[in-house]
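Limitations
The structure tokens in this dataset are predictions for the assembled complex, not deposited experimental models. Users should treat interface geometry with appropriate caution, especially where small molecules or nucleic acid strands are included. An illustrative entry is reproduced here so readers can see what is and is not provided.
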Amino acid sequence: MTGKRKMSPGSFSAPVGCMLLLFSMLLGCASPQPTGVYRGYSGMAPDSALAYLDLGAAHEAIIDDRHYVSRVKYSTVQLLAGAHRIQWAAAFGVSVMVEPGGYAAFETISNVTLEAGHRYRLSAGRTTGQGYKVYLWIEDTTTGRTVSGDKKP
Amino acid sequence: MTGDCRGALGRSPGLERIPPGRVLGRIGLCGWILVFLTFVSGCFHVPLSSNSAIRDQCQAIPPLEQGDVLVVYGENATAPEQSVIGTYFTAGCMAAFHGNTIGEFIKTILKVNPQPGRFAVRHLRDLQNEGGGDRAEADGDSILTRLKLSKQKVAMDRLRYAVHVKESFEAQVHVPLYASPFGIASCSNRTILEANIWDLPTEKFMGSFTVSAEGEFTLFAYLLHLVVFQDTQKDATEKMAGEIVERLTGLKPLENRDP
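Predicted assembly:
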């Protein structure tokens, strides 16, 4: 037969090997983003009485010592407007020269008063190198004001 | 053996004769070797459940009501000591230790609570930092005196039960034959959590729970590091938290599915 190349097993080996390698590399950091909204109050409440807290940089939060919210499942917490105690933690990937584990987690407790209709975000930042500084703060994204903690300069 | 290799190396006449199919085959072989190296250069964890047991010496406990507060305090175990050389030859298997069991216990109670928001869990340290009234009225050796809490604070903050948790952790080296990146290391570890419960308004001792969890940390390495690990601290904490929630709410605790 003319016009047809005979394919040896080696011809398939190269693309399959490359595809597997690429696939194994891509697998590393693939994770779905959670979109769930956690309801941090009991009973019924009108929308006008609610404030929204985006977990943002936090990987977990405990609201008013009653509700545990994990970033694995939820991205936002709905809360009644008013005073709240938010215990939250953020983790950073750091050099193994700084932390042997390759990451460092920081926790803080923020006592804040949330306003109805406003959206807030848990934010974290750090400087780099030895003796790095960590900043954990809560920002009212509706007004752009920092309501708790120090914003990273 | 005589002969001149320069010509062969300089002209590489053999290479010119390799057909395209064989070149692809060699690239394929390189691809497979890279795939293999990618797999073997990593570390693969196999978490297993520990062998745990619970001893319940608690009397019937009235369930927590909406708005009640559970006070938790206690002592974390100290990390087992090991030399630098010992740590190397055991791949640090004794250092697979978490230093914040009490904090994790509080979190786990909230995680497995089937009715989130029904009760709060607070660390005693936070309550003490807030202050809270006159302690003079409490008896000399009562639980409130020991916790530095007043009756007013207990009533005002609705502090219902106090749970004291004491952790002990033991680890033993079995096989210290690891020299990176080859070898075998194995350590057994055992966690015992003992919880004592008091009813704060009546200052009455309600009883105790003891959870023990035993497991093995085993590492096999031949480039690829395979770690089979039974996290006894985590398992004991989950078991204890589940038991506390079940006894104090009368409800079946949720499964802790978070990492």
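Some entries come with short summary sentences. For this one: The first helix of chain A runs from residue 9 to 27.
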